[in-house]
Amino acid sequence: MQLAKVLGTVVSTSKTPNLTGVKLLLVQFLDTKGQPLERYEVAGDVVGAGLNEWVLVARGSAARKERGNGDRPLDAMVVGIIDTVNVASGSLYNKRDDGR
Hints:
Strand content: over 45%
Radius of gyration: 14 Å
Structural class: mainly beta
Oligomer: single chain
Subcellular location: Carboxysome
Main location: other
Distance between the termini: 20 Å
Shape: elongated
Pfam family, one: EutN_CcmL
Family: Belongs to the CcmL/EutN family. CcmL subfamily.
Number of domains: 1
Subunit structure: Homopentamer. Interacts with full-length CcmM.
CATH superfamily: EutN/Ccml
Order of helices and strands: EEEEHEEE
CATH architecture: Beta Barrel
Strand order of the largest sheet: 1-2-3-5-4
CATH class: Mainly Beta
């Protein structure tokens, strides 16, 4: 899994039936210091993540399976909304803090 920040939504009214009901988000991956990387991805979201939230993103075959719904044509799936990230030097992220 990777840390990412939600930058926005992607709307696609015409898509494969396997993606019906799956919200699509534009996410930017984060490094170990919480800084944005130059990598972006469109990820499916079934957990209800919102703009600017930090999320956990599963990629590859793990992204294609969720709750026994079979394979979905996804390379990335938001599988969790992050509340806090703590490292040896202290708090890296706290959802309650402003400015993130």
